[in-house]
Structures are given as structure tokens and as C-alpha cells.
Amino acid sequence: MALPTYATPLERIWYYAFRVTCALIFLFLIAPILVVIPLSFNVEPYFTFTERMLTLDPEGYSTRWYDALLTLGHPTAEAPRDGQWWSTVWERATWVQAAKNSFWVGLWATILATTLGTIAALGLSRPEMPYRRLIMALLISPMIVPIIIIAVGMSFFFAKACVAPDSAMALIFGWALSEKGCLANSHLGVIMAHAVLGIPFVIITVTATLSGFDQSLIRAAQSLGANPRTTFFKVIMPLILPGVISGALFAFVTSFDEVVAVLFIAGPDQQTIPRQMFNGIREAISPAILAVATILVVISTLLLASVELLRRRSDRLRGVTGR
Amino acid sequence: MAEAATELLTTADGRPLKAALQAAQARARRRALLLVLPLLAFVLLTFLIPIGYMLKRSFEHDGFAASAPALVQWFAANPDYDPANPPEEAYAALVQDLARMQDEKTTGTSGTRINYSVAGTISLFKAGARAAADLQPPFKEALLAVDKNWARPALWRGMESASHVYTPEFYLVASDRKLTDDGWARGGDKERIYLYLFFKTFLISGIITVLCLLLAFPVAHLLATLPMAKSSLLMILVLLPFWTSLLVRTTSWIVLLQEQGVVNSLLVSAGLIGNDGRLQMMYNMTGTIVAMTHVLLPFMILPLYSVMRVIPPSYARAARSLGATSWTTFRRIYLPQTLPGIAAGSLLVFILAVGYYITPALVGGADGQLISNLIAFHMTKSNWSLAAAIAGMLLVSILLLYWLYDRLVGIDRLKFG
Fold it and tell me: How close A82 gets to chain B, by Cα (Å)?
């Protein structure tokens, strides 16, 4: 939409005004995310650029807030930093524990959501699928229904969802349940909650990939003598894999960023990064939060880059050119 | 010919073709359904049953019914009594229950249960229960001597209502109704907190939707008309906020907007405001609106973009060549073609805004709280049934909007990136 040579002066003004407006809106979108990065290196405990930071004086910058992430919850933070000290960080430091919890919960929730979601998406994209619209609406609804409603419902139900001690269920699931054998305050409860929140993303991305999938390839594989398992792993899976992986990444990010359900159904053992941040912002906000925020921005940039690459690969595989 | 047409077509093994086809189709349907079944079971367990449980809770409260068996029995036996003048047996049952509550230490739960619809009953029940063991017949005079509020018709109506474990009472309370001496009535202006907050939530969500639309429209248009290489680069600026943690974005706005924050410091150093005149942009409605507009903006840009991308530019050129001004071309040719995108984006942003919790909780202060925050507040105060009733009302409005979205846009059109 380059400006044509015959444009009138008014059109020229309008053209540049439009460009400037768009630039300002992009600034509004991106500046808040970028601003936390330099501020997380502030040597002072303030949330604004100090004089020394603006003059790019190295004295104005420090990594003390990143250091604080390691020492919070560390019983001997002042001790010399030998192997013992670092292993205590790994075992005890509050933020490291939160990161570990977030990672494991996110991983299992992603595996659960992606497996169930991909299989269901395969069924949903079959032309014979009955009640398709209704089922689709139901499976997307965890994204639409306010998270507070889901969290309230789960906090009621998970407190009652308990297994009897010494029962078969307790033997199988006991390790992932709370001490009382309930879903409330347990790792399994948080994983299930996060999986159900990730399912809409898996369904949407995988059905979108399958919409460009040529169903006759399945019949071709079958006519050449492949059994259903071979057909799935050798024909379907390689073609829909980019969609499955981006769905999985969406599910992981959803879990990694989720705080409301955790606040309502988790116990003190399920401290996650978002929960720690939420409490930190509510109580006494320190620049250590900005250090965490910076790390999360870096992670999300990497995830975005992977999803973009996957999308382009998927488009290429399906023969879609351009966007 | 006629004979051949009446003869049934059969498969190789002699079955009628129609029946064989129907059987095959039924088998295909069952197979498709079988693939979805595990996920449906999981969603039932972790999503539908919990929400059903919550809705059940919104109708259920046994705080009074479980601790006042004598009165429950009496209310069940005498459905036509006069709340303005209950007979002596009713008072006898009440005194018996009050003494029991004192023994079993259930005075607090009973008083709290009645207190949802009739104010001031917690202290009334405590005082009544303490005195109950020493009261002598006639109980009516004795109890009224302790506190004459025991004769209030509103209280008797409240106790009768609370004697049922299942009651629609919490929905009435969540619609700002109170029990008066004449029955349920709307509360005074100061008591209209719940419906007012619903109204405010919808209003703020509407404002945010309009702001998002105004900001998203030019950007989506630019992205849709730029060459692919450039628009792909700019698209990253839209997708990065989408992928960044909500808590990070909310933190950023606290950093930017607070009194000692970046925006205020910029304004002060630019000399636009004095150091003592720093703007209060955080912990109020402004903070909620600004931060939520930023958080939800990508949800508006993406559907708008995907619609604008496929609008052929030749229509606008044709309009211009036929003598339309640029404004007329925009208004009558371009804008109508973007309507599906506007509908999709606006509905999605509005639906998401209505149920927002985290951002208002962190940047909203006292003024910028939405209905979700009220639900969370009642949950922390252990007012479970009331929280569930408010959540139930929110759920109904969201489902209506969702249904509208499905009718107008179609949920299978939902996409990311």
C-alpha cells in the first residue's frame, strides 16, 4: 500500500498520520513488555529508571535481583558459594522450587491435554462425526467460561473427590494425591485442572491442521495394506505433527501462566511461579519480580519463535504458500 | 425395467445394499465417537461435574436446617402459619433448638445462614442461644423479653426459608433482594451492590471492547495490506504480548503506571505535571481498563486481520474510480466487509473481559474490581453458597454470549496466530 505518485497533499498527510498512529499502537503493545527488562537490572529497589541508568553508568546496573531469586528461602544465604550452597539452592530456594513445580505440572498437564486432545481432534475431523458442533462447543468452553467459575467449581468438587485409604485407587494414585487422599491440595488435582484448560488450544490447533489434511491418504494407506496403527504413526502423525506440537506448546504456556485455579485448589506444596508472582505483587512488590518477569519474557520469545517455525513448516507440508 | 427397479440392490454376500450402507455408516459414526470419548470423559470429570457441583452448592445450605431440627419439623407441619404472629409451639421449638445450638456450638453457622437474607441475626442468635437453657414457658414472652427482635416477621420468614436445605434464596440475595417483614423486596440504594457490580463489569468490558476495536482496526488494516515479509515481522509485535505471561504484562503496567513509575516520571521530567501532582493511574478503574485493553488487544487484532487479509482491494479501487470519496469508500465498501471480523473480535474480547480476575485483582484497587473478584472475595469469606450463586449468574450470562458467538461467528473459526 505504498503511496501512489498522484496522491493529493491531504492523502499524503493522512497516509503519514495513519503510519504514526500504527507505530504508537505497536509501541503500546510492546513497550510494557520490554520495559521490565532493563529495570530488572536496576541496582536500586525502585521501579523507575534512575539517573545513573539513563546515563548508562555501569554502577547503576546490577544482577542483585537475579541473585535474590536464588537466596530467597535459602537458610544459609551468606555462606560461601560452594557445591553445598548450590545444592541447597536446588533443594530449598523458594523460586527454584516454584520453577520446578511449574515445570512438572506443566509437563504432565501438556502430555494429558495433548494426548486426549489429539485423539479427539482426529475423531472430530471425521465427516461422520455425530453431534460435532455440540461436542466442539463443549470442548472449547474451558477457554470461554471464566476461570474463576471453573476454579470455584473445582475447589468444591476436588475437596470431596477423595479415595478411601488402602483401596486400589489409593495404591495407584495415592502418590499424586494429598495426604487425605483427595484431589484438593494435590499435584494430580492441579495437573488435571491445567490439562482441562489446555484442551481448547490443542483441539483448535489440531483440528485446524487436520482441516487441510487429505482424508484419502488414510484410505490409500489402508488399501496398501497398512493396519490402523501403521496408518496413524506413518501417515497421519508426521503430517499433523506441527499442529500437535504447537497445540502442546499452547497447553504448556497456559499451564505455566495459570494462577487462579492454583490459588483455589492447590496447597502449600504446589507453589508455582505464577502463584509466587501473584503473592509477590499483592504483598510487597520487589524488583525480584521483574527479574522473574524478564526470564519469562525470554522463555515466551523462544516459544513464539518455535511456534512460528512450526506453522511455516506445517503450511509448507500442506502446500499452503504465504500466510 | 419396472421389474428391475423393484428388485433390491444387494452386496456381494447378498445383503440389501441400503442396510449394508446404513450399518457401515453407523460403524463409522461409532468409531469417530469412540475417539472423542476419552476426552469427553475427562472433561466431564474435571469440568462439567465441578461446575454442576458449584451450581448445586448455589442452591444448597444446611447451616440452619441441620442445627434446628425441631423448627424444621414444625415448619414442615405448619406451612400456613402467620409469620407476623407465630404460635407458642413455634417459639417452644425455637427455644429447644437454640439450647441445642448452644450445646453443639452451631449458633454461628445458624445465625450466619439467616444473616444472608435478614441483617443482624448473628448477634441475635448468640444472645438467644446463651439464654435459651434458662427460659421457662410460656416461651414466647420469655424469648421476647431477651430480645423483642425475635418477633420480627422477616426473621420468621428467614428461618422458614432456611429450614429447607435447597433454596433459591442465594440467587435472590445475589440480585440484591432482602427479606422484609412483608417478604422479599429490593434492598435500598446502598444495598444494591451485586447487580450494580454486574452492570459495572459489563460497562467496563464494553469500554475495553471499544478501546480494543479502535486500537486494533488500524493495526490490523496495516498488517493486512503490507507485503508479506514486512507484515510477518510486525505480526511478531502482536504475537509476543499474546505469548507473554499475563502476570508479566500486569506487572509491567504496575511498573509503568504507579505513582513513582515510569510514565509519571516521564511526565514530571517533561514538565507536564509537577512532582507533587503525579497522576493516580494505578489501583483504580483506569488501571484496570488500561491493563486489560493491553492484555486483550491481540484477541481483537487476530480475527480482524484474518478477515481483512482476504478483502480484495479491487472493490475499494472500483468505488474510487466511480467517484466515491475516500471516506465514502471506507464507510460503504471497506467497513461492511470487515464486519465479520469486528463481530468475532468484539464478542471474544467482551466475553474474556467479563470473566477477568487476575488483572483487576492486582491493579484495580478498590474501585476497579469486577464480578470475578467479588466471587473470590466471598469464597475467602467462606460464603460458599453466595459465591456459587453469583458465579452461577455470571455463568448464565457468559453462556448466552457464547451461544451468540457460535451463531454469529462459529466456534470453528477460532484460531491463533
Answer: 32
CA distance to partner chain B, nearest, from residue A83 (Å) = 32
Q: Are B221 and B342 in contact (CB under 8 A)?
A: no
What are B213-267's pLDDT values in tens digits? 999 999 999 999 898 888 888 998 999 998 899 999 998 998 888 888 888 888 8
B334 near A CB under 8 A: no
CA of B304 vs chain A CAs: smallest distance (Å): 15
Residue range(s) defining the domain that contains residue A159: 94-317
Q: Looking at the structure, do residues B357 and B228 belong to the same domain, yes or no? A: yes
Interchain pair A1, B215: CB under 8 A:
no
Residues of B in contact with A26 (CB under 8 A): 219, 234, 237
B184 occurs within a structural domain? no
Is the ipTM higher than 0.95? The answer is no
Contact B402, A137 (CB under 8 A): yes
> What are the start-end ranges of the H helices in chain A?
9-39, 51-54, 64-71, 83-92, 94-124, 132-144, 147-160, 168-173, 187-211, 216-223, 228-230, 237-256, 260-265, 273-282, 287-317
Residue type, A191: I
Q: Which residues of B touch A141 (CB under 8 A)?
A: 47, 402
Instruction: State whether B391 and A148 contact (CB < 8 Å).
Output: yes
B357 Cβ partners below 8 Å, 6+ apart? A146, A147, A148, A260, B370, B372, B373, B376
Is A226 a member of any domain? yes
> Which of chain B's residues have a Cβ under 8 Å away from the Cβ of A35?
252, 255-256, 262
Check A33 against B249: CB less than 8 A apart: yes
* CB pair distance less than 8 Å for B53 and A208: no
Contact at CB, B39 and A277, closer than 8 angstroms: no
Least confident segment among A54-63, A234-243, B75-84, B94-103: A54-63
Would residue A267 count as lying in a domain? yes
Tell me which chain A residue has its CA closest to the CA of residue B255: A47
Residues of B in contact with A218 (CB under 8 A): none
CA dist B192 → A51, B184, B235 (Å)? 50, 14, 45
Asked if residue B241 has a cis previous peptide bond (ω within 30° of 0), the answer is: no
Q: Is residue A77 part of a domain?
A: no
Using alpha carbons, select from A142, A200, A176, A149 the residue that is nearest to residue A266.
A176
Q: Which of B8, B31, B56 is the last residue of a domain?
A: B56
With respect to residue B62, please indicate whether it lies within any of the assigned structural domains: no
Residue B367 sits in a domain whose CATH number is 1.10.3720.10
Question: What's the whole-number mean pLDDT along residues B115-122?
Answer: 86
Domain span holding position B108: 69-163
Which amino acid, A250?
F
Say if the Cβ atoms of A308 and B239 lie within 8 Å: yes
Nearest to A123 among B32, B245, B406 (CB): B32
> Considering the entire predicted model, what is its pTM?
0.89
Tell me B226's DSSP state. S
How many distinct structural domains can be found in chain B?
3
Could you give the number of structural domains in chain A?
A: 1
